[in-house]
Amino acid sequence: MRKLFLAVSSVALVTPFVASTASADIVGLGANVSYWDSGLSGKATTNGDQVDIENDLDLSSDSNANLTAYLEHPLPLLPNVRLSYVSTEHTGTGNLGVRFDSIGAGADVRSDLDLSQLDLTLYYEILDNWVNLDAGLTVRKLDGELLVQEIGGTQASETDIDGVLPMGYLAARFDLPFSGVSAGAEGNFISFDGDSVYDVTAYGQYEISLLQLRAGYRQMAIDYEDGNDRLDIELDGPFISAGVTF
Questions:
Q1: What is the pTM of this model?
Q2: Which of 13-17, 59-63, 183-187 has the highest mean pLDDT?
């Protein structure tokens, strides 16, 4: 963790001076909403008992919400600001192959997994021409809850994670001149003390007037321990989004 903060601190000290020569010429605002068709795999651990989310619980995505807004400005040394919110809900019925917490092996279960994250990203524009490059720091509020209930019985188990994580942020976009078409990728990442989180997106984009359309692929992995509970899961799949820019 100490190494991570040293690295982040170094970037935070150096980046503003590099970015001051590439800051935006005008104030820019933007917002978008997206739909992410995310698959789910991994494991959950509670009090030393582990269950396979895909094979034992058979969870599938029921709904998700993805919202993003940003503000860019021409003021040197001050970072641009980006807010992002993601919420996914997964439900399923399955059969436990092993004992899990208070629920015995062989039990039929209904499960619900809710994940949400709220990101505040402060970033600088390192390059701003046909190649766009941003770098900064994200603070992510991460919440996850897995509820497993025995069907036809009274036993239930709850796995919870809750944390605030500092994450590195990088984004790159390559524009095709005069076409409105571009391709890009962006990601957040952190790893410390056996825990790790990364969230990576690759996309193609088309802009016409104020409208911005995107389609691509997103992969997010969470390996996080909170007390006696641990989630080690991966979500990935295609997404589409629509937004406006000013």
A1: 0.86
A2: 183-187
